[in-house]
Predict the 3D structure of the following.
Amino acid sequence: MIEYLLSPFHYDLMLKAMFVSAMIGGVCACLSCFVTLKGWSLMGDALSHAVVPGVSLAYMLGLPFALGAFVSGILAALCMGFIKSRTRIREDAVIGIVFTTFFAAGVLMISLYPSNIKLNTIVFGNILGIAAGDIWQMLIISSVTMLVVALKWRDLLLHSFDPNQARAIGLNVGVLHVTLLTLLAATAVAALQAVGACLVVAMLVTPGATAYLLTDRFGRMMIIAMVMGVLTSLIGAYVSFFVNASTGGCIVVLQTAVFLTALMLAPKHGVIASWLKGRASVTALMTGVPGEPVPSGAVMR
Amino acid sequence: MDHIAQGIDLVVQDVTVAYNNGHVALHDASFSLNPGTICALVGVNGSGKSTLFKAIMGFVRPVRGTVRIAGDPVKAAHKKNWVAYVPQSEDVDWSFPVSVWDVVLMGRYGYMNFLRIPGAQDKRLAMESLERVKMTEFKDRQIGELSGGQKKRVFLARALAQQGRIILLDEPFTGVDFKTEGAIIALLRELRDDGHIILVSTHNLGTVPEFCDQVVMINRTVLAFGPTETTFTEENLALAFGGALRHLRLDHTDVPGAERNELVVLTDDEGALVVGAGGRLERRKARNDDQKAGSEP
């Protein structure tokens, strides 16, 4: 039995897959905190789809895929910014138009000029078929992202919380904005291989959202999200070996399970806790237990 | 060089701001403030109040005209942390996972090193600022767990910790009870006496004569600027607000010694302005008495 459970560890391929998944899971989770707090979930989704044409072009031309993805991701972000500032169209519609356009262009390119990359790989990921060169690119992206966040998380936090204050004390808000966007695009690229373009957004949102239910402090939120990201990715990759299923699917389903658990059971912001709190205050009102005094602001001037 | 000792002035000259869509939000706005003053910024919604704030904060670049702080352009002034900003309550995400202490420390970021790790000086000033607004005991609360007045005080503490010389307040009295309003006003007076410039954007016309030394009245441009006594008049308010004010004429006054008993009550959304005979501004002298009475058993 134990032999059976340990069997994934005998395969180089599986070890590599688990390592890469855990790494990507951790980095995505780290950024997911900023994504959830900044309300950028749609943006993350958009970026992960918008990198597809860049990736396919890079593969065709034999360039590093990260480069192509990065260029098309930033191009998409610029397009969105341009359309939003020049027209009356709302942001969600702009994002919807731009990312589907980019994604469609990518799909078109791959289907017209079949190369050594398959559409399936980009859309659903293929962590077992990952090349050594790609692992290096992912390693570099992850380390740079983690380094930037480790050094500048306080600035990024202030930028998310109160951009006006950030500007008022002389921080370069434009640079911070582009930095976060760049990290997001780069991480989306790295995660593409692991879970595919469709599921990247889950890894960029779910851990942050889960941690946000569990704590009211940013530092703790970051730690919870990252622990969750690493563990779910590791276990997801491990389980996928036994059920012989898509790694990305396993990871994301696992993350959703954790999220649902937190949603119900979170001590303060969970559904059950809110329900109990609501019932307790109603009971207090009904039984006439002295509750909160009438607020002093209610007095007429 | 110690900038605390020297006064810093704010000069807004012929500022015209146009947005990308071609809308001119503000044109040829001019006024200047010397150190040690509380100035109200009064006008209807969409009159360019927030645009003027944005111009002073450097968020929008005027197509014409300049904003200078102690002779410097706004960007240079920001680098020196001279401009502190207290946001409107609606503009803050109160469920954000930060504590009161985190928010106050954010005021010190401009002084901190590359990694923004607070030093002893930063912590001391943040602590002193919290004490000054009497929020020390709420230090570890998440910001959403505070009352309206406490929330305002936290952001005031952040401005204090920043040691800004110009403090911009956007609707400081919205969602704040009468007592806290008084406490905030007392604090602003202290800051004025220390030589700060305080610019308050407000709908609460009633409080203006009570604590503002000067008034800027705007509607797309500066309509009137000067000391509250002479500028905050019924005629100027009519000019600034047009028909947007509720206007009641009553035949009664509570102020002893007033020869005529005619009162005019002007109100926008919040606290009403009461104008006595001959345009005299009726201050709410009753505030202190109210508070004394309230604290007695």
